[in-house]
Amino acid sequence: MEIERKFLLKSLPDHLDSFPFHTIEQGYLCTDPVVRIRRQDEEYYLTYKSKGLMVREEYNLPLTRDAYCHLRSKTDGILISKKRYLIPLPPRYTIELDIFEGKLAPLVLAEVEFATEEEANHFVPPEWFGEDVTYSDKYHNSTLSRFTD
Predict the structure, then answer these.
(1) For residue 28, is it left (φ>0), alpha (ψ between -120 and 50) or beta?
(2) Is residue 149 included in any domain, yes or no?
(3) DSSP letter at 3?
(4) What are the pLDDT digits (tens) for 95-128?
């Protein structure tokens, strides 16, 4: 189960380059239901996500590099490239800050995952977060993958 809230940003946090990050490329084999392939650094995954906005079922299966490369050519829409920074938010959260590249630049989104819906509903975002877009499917990566010029 994935429980997360998603936000646009008013500004980037100070010292962003001091936080760890992953380089991510992902594409969608299907968007209803969501079936995604992802390369995160040198790890590869196939992911299924159910319908939903803040709460969704999510299953990740490991892929080999060869399997990822084979499926990559079968994706619909654009391949999404982004840099994901991992920013600690005490006492127990991690902000996943995505800076999109290519056709989706200069989009920046922040996500925070939670253990329960109640926890997610009571979350108070940091000052530098902007609009809460959790309930807008416009900002799902599967929707963004259908971006056209």
Answers:
(1) beta
(2) no
(3) E
(4) 999 999 999 999 999 999 999 999 999 999 999 9
Cis bond upstream, residue 13 (ω within 30)? no
Q: What is the DSSP letter of 144?
A: H
Give the tokens for residue 117. 């819906």
Q: How far apart are CA 123 and CA 131, in angstroms?
A: 14
Which structural domain range is residue 112 located in? 2-144
Q: What single letter denotes the amino acid at residue 110?
A: A
Number of structural domains, the chain?
A: 1
- Name the catalytic one among 28, 44, 85, 139: 28
- The pTM assigned to this predicted structure is 0.94
Distance CA 45, CA 52 (A): 21
Instruction: Please indicate whether residue 85 is annotated as part of the active site.
Output: no
CATH code for position 125? 2.40.320.10
Residue 121 burial by Cβ neighbours in a 10 Å radius (0-12, 13-18, 19+): exposed
